[in-house]
C-alpha cells in the first residue's frame, strides 16, 4: 500500500516519498498540529498476517527508543494505525554516503571524518547493548554541516537479547557484511566494525574491496580473501592500510579475535591523519 501526497495518517499529512526498500517505505510527513516535518516509516502493512515480522519491527522500535545520540537519527514516536505499524523518525536532510561516493566523490579527508563520526555513534550504540548489523554507506546520511546521522537500525539486535531471525539466516547487505554474518552466526560489535572497515576501504580506494563473481563470489571473498591494499590503487598512506587490515581480519585466520572489540579502539588507533596541506 502506498500513500500519495495529501493523504492523512492519524495526525500526519503525507508530503511525499523519501525512499523504499526491504525495511519498509519511508514518507516525508508533517504533523498537523506542531507542523514539524518528520520521516514516517511503514514498517508493516498488515499486522495480523505477519506476527513474527511484527515482533521484529516492534523490537526495532524498542531498540531505537533507547538510543539518544547526535549522530543517530532519533525516534520520535511509533503507532499502530489501520492495522499497520508505523514509526516516526527525525527527518534527516542531506544525502547518503552511498550517493556522495558516486559523484563527485569524497576526499580521503572527508571520508575519514565521516568514519570517525560513524564510529562515535557505534561506540555509543554498542555500549547500550545494540549492534546495528547493516552498516553500509546507504545507512550513513550526511546532513548539512557534514554531520553524520546513522539510519535504519531495522535489523539491529541487542547484545544480550535473543535473536528474532531464523537460525542461519543471512541478514545484511552482502558487499559490507562480516564473514560471521555471511555464515549466519550471531555477530557482535566487531561485525559492525568490519562493515565500517569495508566502507573506509571503499572511501580510500574508490571502489568496494570485493565486487566480482556475483553475490556468491562476493560472499566467498568476504570469507576467504584479503583485499588489495588500497595504497596500490590510490596511494593511500600505510598507516591507514594497517587500520584496514585489522578491521577486515578474517575469521578463519583468527582475525575475529584480532579485530578491535570496540569502536572506541578503532577510532583513535590510526585515523588521526596528518595536517591537511595548506
Provide keyphrases for this structure.
278 residues, alpha+beta, Phosphorylase Kinase, domain 1, Transferase(Phosphotransferase), domain 1, 2 domains, six-stranded antiparallel sheet, three-stranded antiparallel sheet, 20% strand, globular, disordered C terminus
Report on this structure.
α3 (108-127) packs antiparallel against α5 (189-205) and α5 (189-205) packs antiparallel against α8. The radius of gyration is 19 Å and the shape is globular. It starts with 7 loop residues before the first strand and ends in a 12-residue tail after the last helix. It is built from ten helices and eleven strands. The model is unreliable at 160-168 and 274-278 (pLDDT under 50). The chain has 278 residues and is of the alpha+beta class. The longest helix has 20 residues, at 108-127. A hairpin with a 3-residue loop joins β9 and β10 (147-150). The strands form three sheets. It has a six-stranded antiparallel β-sheet. A three-stranded antiparallel β-sheet has the order 7-9-10. It has helices at 51-65, 97-102, 108-127, 179-182, 189-205, 214-224, 231-234, 238-247, 255-258, 263-266, and strands spanning 8-9, 12-21, 24-31, 37-44, 75-81, 84-89, 95-96, 130-131, 140-143, 147-150, 157-158. It has two domains: 8-89, 2-Layer Sandwich (Phosphorylase Kinase, domain 1), CATH 3.30.200; 95-269, Orthogonal Bundle (Transferase(Phosphotransferase), domain 1).
